[in-house]
């Protein structure tokens, strides 16, 4: 792809009528606006079913979609709901209350499901094709149905017949027939609506970059159904868990709690689970960013009994063996490597051996001597990501002398913008990297109120930031077009 720019914005963060950004008209408005301003990429966060702490990186499945992204108004356009019955929820709030949104949308989903069954003949062909194309669907709907039947408890706490259903299939599913159909209906609607959004973006010349977590959650359909793929004890508990040692984000490291892969087993079956995960991502997105890419080189292994990530050890990863097998099976997949943090040179070599763009975050080198370093052409320059301060938030913490030094650096290169976030964006556009991606919070010039996630912390207010309307965004995004044109990232 030629020199271009994009916007990082979680779907959940976009304006919408029912409390959370979703697959409705206002998301198409976002696509219109970034396309008109000359942007060519929209990077999203994972959209799988949100698990612990509503984190998109701890989902209940690597494949299924999160139902609260289904747009209710679209269901009425499909004659599954009456438009007059639809109300709004927190339409102009600047944060997402996930539980409130779930409780609000659920009755509408149930009504739409009732109508869907009545009108099933109209949808049957498309629905059956979706089911046939989704090998993961049967296991997932059983998993989430059992989970709901057990008060959303983790699968290890279920009755033994349900806990071990993937092994022995001893539970009679006939009493759950309607519940299973309902969960399939939700997945069908999620991917039907997302396909429309994806196609709309393509028509506007916008490519969508998805995001796949390196690890999966312990409390997921993935682990429940594929226990042999992970290092687990006999009762399903992890023998060891994933994380990272002390770093820029946390003095005690991050103990994520995800189970570690059984790479010895995976190697024997040519990494089937990973290939299936990436194949599904490829179907949903144009580009896929692999989070925590460095774990393919070395990963931090923590004994499950340890309470922090300090006492772990580095283990050599699958490296070239994995990517050789992957590209034999998915030769045309387009990947991006999240290669941030304190990493070995071998990580960069692995990335370069497969010509994968890496990430270069400007806020991680906020010193004039570091900013002088040219960006690599095959890389993506970001002002920041969803895991760190916004540009203005970071700037507010700098000393007076630090600010003067930075402004002198930008001034000497011809940048005269008054606001720091605009200086940084303009500078990013002009860099040598083929790709530049700007978080929506930096386009808006937000400070700490726009912070999306603080690594090492769980729950509110992480992942809750939301844009209440497009008034300011519409004005700010179009201002960037002349800079994109000058930087040869957009046409006049």
Question: Can you offer a commentary on this structure?
Answer:
The chain is α/β, with parallel strands linked by helices and 492 residues long. The chain has 20 helices and twelve strands. The protein has helices at 25-36, 72-77, 98-118, 120-133, 137-149, 160-163, 165-168, 177-203, 221-225, 263-268, 272-284, 319-329, 345-353, 368-371, 391-395, 400-412, 420-429, 440-443, 471-479, 481-486, and strands at residues 4-8, 41-43, 207-212, 240-244, 254-259, 287-290, 298-303, 312-316, 335-337, 358-361, 379-382, 435-439. The protein has an eight-stranded parallel β-sheet. A four-stranded antiparallel β-sheet has the order 5-4-7-8, with no helix packed on it. The chain starts with a strand and ends in a 6-residue tail after the last helix. The model has no long low-confidence stretch (mean pLDDT 96).
Summary, kept brief:
By secondary structure, the chain is α/β, with parallel strands linked by helices. It has 20 helices and 12 strands. The model has no long low-confidence stretch (mean pLDDT 96).
Main attributes of the structure:
492 residues; alpha/beta; 8-stranded parallel sheet; 4-stranded antiparallel sheet; 40% helix
Name the assembly state: single chain
Question: Hey, roughly how much beta strand do the residues contain?
Answer: 5-15%
Strand order of the largest sheet: 9-6-3-2-1-12-11-10
- SS summary, helix count: 20
Major β-sheet annotation: 8 strands, parallel
């Amino acid at each position: 792809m030629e020199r271009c720019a994009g916007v990082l914005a979680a779907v959940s963060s976009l304006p919408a009528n029912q409390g959370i950004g979703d697959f409705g008209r206002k998301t198409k408005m976002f696509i219109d606006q970034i396309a008109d301003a000359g942007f060519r990429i929209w990077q999203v966060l994972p959209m799988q079913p949100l698990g612990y702490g509503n984190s998109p990186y701890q989902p209940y499945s690597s494949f299924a979609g999160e139902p609260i992204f289904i747009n209710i108004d679209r269901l009425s356009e499909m004659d599954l709901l009456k438009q007059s019955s639809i109300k709004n929820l927190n339409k102009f709030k600047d944060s997402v209350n996930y539980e409130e949104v779930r409780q609000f949308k659920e009755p509408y989903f149930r009504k739409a499901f009732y109508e869907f069954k009545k009108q099933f003949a109209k949808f049957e062909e498309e629905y059956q094709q979706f089911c046939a194309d989704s090998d993961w669907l049967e296991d997932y709907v059983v998993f989430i149905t059992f989970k709901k039947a057990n008060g959303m408890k983790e699968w290890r706490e279920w009755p033994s017949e349900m806990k071990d259903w993937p092994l022995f299939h001893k539970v009679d599913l006939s009493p759950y027939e309607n519940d299973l159909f309902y969960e399939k209906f939700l997945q069908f609607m999620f991917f039907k609506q997302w396909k429309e959004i994806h196609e709309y973006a393509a028509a506007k010349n916008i490519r969508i970059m998805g995001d796949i977590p390196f690890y999966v959650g312990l409390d997921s359909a993935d682990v429940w159904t594929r226990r042999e793929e992970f290092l687990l004890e006999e009762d399903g508990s992890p023998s060891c868990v994933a994380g990272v040692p002390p770093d820029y984000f946390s003095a005690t490291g991050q103990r994520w709690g995800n189970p570690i892969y059984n790479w010895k087993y995976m190697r024997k079956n040519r990494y089937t689970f990973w290939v299936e995960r990436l194949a599904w991502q490829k179907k949903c997105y144009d580009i896929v960013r692999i989070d925590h890419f460095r774990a393919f080189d070395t990963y931090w292994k923590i004994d499950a009994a340890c309470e922090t990530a300090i006492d772990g050890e580095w283990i050599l990863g699958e490296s070239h063996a994995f990517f050789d097998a992957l590209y034999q099976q998915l030769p045309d997949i387009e990947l991006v490597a999240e290669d941030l943090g304190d990493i070995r040179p071998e990580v960069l070599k692995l990335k370069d051996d497969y010509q994968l763009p890496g990430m270069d975050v400007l806020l991680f080198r906020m010193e004039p001597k570091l900013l002088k370093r040219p960006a690599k052409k095959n890389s993506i320059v970001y002002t920041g990501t969803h895991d760190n301060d916004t540009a203005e938030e970071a700037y507010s913490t700098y000393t007076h002398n630090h600010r003067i030094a930075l402004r002198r650096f930008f001034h000497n290169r011809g940048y005269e913008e008054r606001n720091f976030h605009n200086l940084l964006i303009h500078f990013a556009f002009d860099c040598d990297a083929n790709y530049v991606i700007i978080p929506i919070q930096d386009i808006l010039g937000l400070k700490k109120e726009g912070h999306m996630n603080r690594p090492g912390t769980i729950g509110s207010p992480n992942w809750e930031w939301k844009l209440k309307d497009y008034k300011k965004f519409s004005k700010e995004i179009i201002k960037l077009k002349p800079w994109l044109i000058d930087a040869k990232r957009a046409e006049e």
